[in-house]
Amino acid sequence: MKNSTYLSTHKKGYIIGIIATFMCAHSLMLAAQPEEMISEMHHRMIVLSDIEAEVDDTESFVRLLLYSNEIDLKGLIATTSCWKKTSVAPEYIAKIIKAYGKVQPNLLKHDAGFPTADTLLSVVKKGLPKYGLLGVGDGKDSEGSDWIIKVLEEKDERPLYISVWGGANTLAQALYKIKHTKSAAEAKRLIAKLRVYTISDQDDSGIWIRNNFPDLFYIVSPGDDYGSATWLAINTVYKGTNNEVISNDWLAKNVQQGHGALGVEYPDVSYGMEGDTPSWLSLVLNGLNDPEHPDWGAWGGRYELYKPDFSKATKGSSGVPSEAETREIWTNAKDTYTPYISNAYGRTVKLDSITFSDDKVTLWRWREDFQNDFAARMDWCIKSFQEANHPPVAVLLEPEAFKVKSGQGFELDAIYSYDPDGDHISFLWFDYPEAGTYKKALKMDGARNSHKIYIVAPVVDKEVTIHIILKVTDKGTPPLSRYKRIIVEVLPK
Known about the structure:
The protein is an alpha/beta fold. It has helices spanning about 10-20, 25-30, 35-40, 55-65, 90-105, 115-120, 145-150, 170-180, 185-190, 205-210, 250-255, 260-265, 280, 360-365, 365-380; strands at about 45-50, 70-80, 125, 160-165, 195-200, 215-220, 305, 330, 335, 340, 350, 355-360, 400-405, 410-415, 425-430, 445, 450-455, 465-475, 480-490.
């Protein structure tokens, strides 16, 4: 998310505290915002889904609709893939949306931005029922590919995120038509608005797109070696982490049973839970996510721009051809991460005794947070505002981006953060070395779980950036977290 207007004085922070005291008025103010004003703050997205190839797409749609109040869903397109080559199933997208329509009136009690089921049904489209590049070329247009172009041509300067859960050939056809029917300048303008995140490659059009449109913003764990993909971390059991939040028992209790019609639509896991969800999690407005900067790390993982070493690729079983990349793409990156865990006495948190280091860490380090967020939104389907939990609001007294001199100390304070439900909130400050250009740990004085922290900038002989994350968590059920990302430029003396 772009850095928003921030509070820079204690007086403004005090005003926020006063607003927190009068949350009823605050809620009414939010509810009164025009829908078009709200949508301008949200990311636009089109989904390409091989729904009914496997049940995980249905699971991801259930979760996605719960965030339709803050992700501007411009298209939900049924496509083919290597697992579903000759048919598309838009009717199953419509089925989930109709279940959403039954709980949407209750969701509106929690936020005014949830669209009607009819609005969402109007953007359900279908791609060509052909596999991969068999569906790309002259005369291969479809309702879905034409819809992508139509949305791109709208007078809206926001990027258009394409979240690909199956094959990418509907996008490939849209790009083919743009290239062959638009001027070079217009094609460049339209393609520059696209941001693509595909869940590995599930047909042969993904590598074709990357080869033929070298300037296209593209995130992918390339090929069909799913075991090496970052997104797999959403549903993989890791020793030493909280795996309970992805268990079948957790899903039954928090999603499927007793949560209304939408929860009933969430199927039992067949292969892996929600393998497609990471492709859009970084669009959630949580204070941490900024999808324009995949290398900063967020709920959907962290990715760096480079040309991967094809010699190390492992062939999967999908039949998708493996080809060397011809240009840089946004792809797997590695984090080294030591979790904070609860402490029984004294300071409430401490560092764990185990450290993790690989590309999947970039995603599962946030997994407990986004699973709790999912569970809370499932509660919104059936509970009143007073009965359910809502995320806290992180308020920083300092700017979210500023400069300091080498070796200079500075303080960060979040004392006016608050919770809309009146819950107690906890704080945690930590640095994110992989997100900045200074890769060493920072010196932080005092308790990292206090509302303020004192930090000494590193001594440097060239300009570097450091990323500091504030995590604010309430003690509601389930506990919910929101963040502030503070980017500090450290200048040599």
